[in-house]
Amino acid sequence: MTRFAHESSCPVEAMFRVLMGPWTMYILWTLRRDGPLRFGVLKRQLAGVSSKVLTERLRLLESEGLIYREHNPTIPPEVTYGLTENGRELGDALDALEAVARRWDSRGAIAPQPEPPLEHSARTGQS
Predict the structure, then answer these.
(1) Where are the domains of the chain?
(2) Alpha carbon separation from 86 to 45, 51, 91, 114 (Å, rounded)
(3) What CATH architecture does domain 23-108 belong to?
(4) What pTM does this model have?
């Protein structure tokens, strides 16, 4: 059972709590756009996210049933992430947000955002 089912009396509120987390929508949108990706490829797609934060978000999304994790015990291990059926159901919403973003960008309504600051572990090389 996911937290969506028991966290709140309002399922929309429970869903928004998960989707509003840092990097969450970007992860889902990237997997929607590019299909299943290995961890390293996904991390490179999300410039600025640390391995720690990406791992935390992926674990949360997996526990919520929005993504799957496929582990192949090779050396080095291959771990691939992709959208589950529930995650794919968000596709129309993600596509609509992308369309709005592109319209706003074409009208100059979206100000360029500075690069996110590197997280402590990325700056210092610590995990």
Answers:
(1) 23-108
(2) 22, 25, 9, 32
(3) Orthogonal Bundle (1.10)
(4) 0.77
